[in-house]
Design goal:
Layout: H1 2-32, H2 34-37, H3 50-56, H4 72-85
Helix pairs in contact: 1-4, 3-4
The structure holds heme C.
């Protein structure tokens, strides 16, 4: 019985946390990435390296898009949001 209760609580936590993460990615993207990336979306194909190259910087994009205060998971959330709007 206690085990089932724990599973139920874990399930509810997952359900409520997932949409919050997606919204964060959008907010982080809009605040930190959109100024450059609304005009220029990265090309698809090398998605596997996107999080890493955003953290390190690439070409004229500074590391973390010039926002050193963003954590790795912030970058990941923003890149994941970006993937949903890239074409
Ligand atoms: C100062 C402008 C600028 C900002 C701010 C910026 N980017 Fe970029 N980004 C670029 C440019 C320019 C490129 C292309 C780099 C190249 O391919 O030479 C790029 C490329 C990328 C790529 C493709 C990388 C690859 O491996 O091809 C991703 C993903 C990306 N940016 C994500 C982000 C995210 C997420 C943010 C916000 C945290 C962000 N960028 C903020 C200018 C910017």
């Amino acid at each position: 019985m206690r085990h089932i209760l724990k599973l139920a609580i874990a399930g509810i936590t997952l359900l409520t946390v997932a949409p919050a993460l997606a919204a964060d990615g959008q907010a982080i993207y809009k605040a930190n990435c959109a100024p450059c990336h609304n005009a220029m979306k990265p090309k698809l194909g090398d998605k596997a390296n996107w999080v890493e190259s955003t953290i390190k910087g690439k070409g004229t994009m500074p590391p973390r898009g010039g926002h050193p205060n963003l954590s790795d998971s912030d970058i990941k959330a923003a890149v994941e949001y970006m993937e949903t709007i890239a074409h």
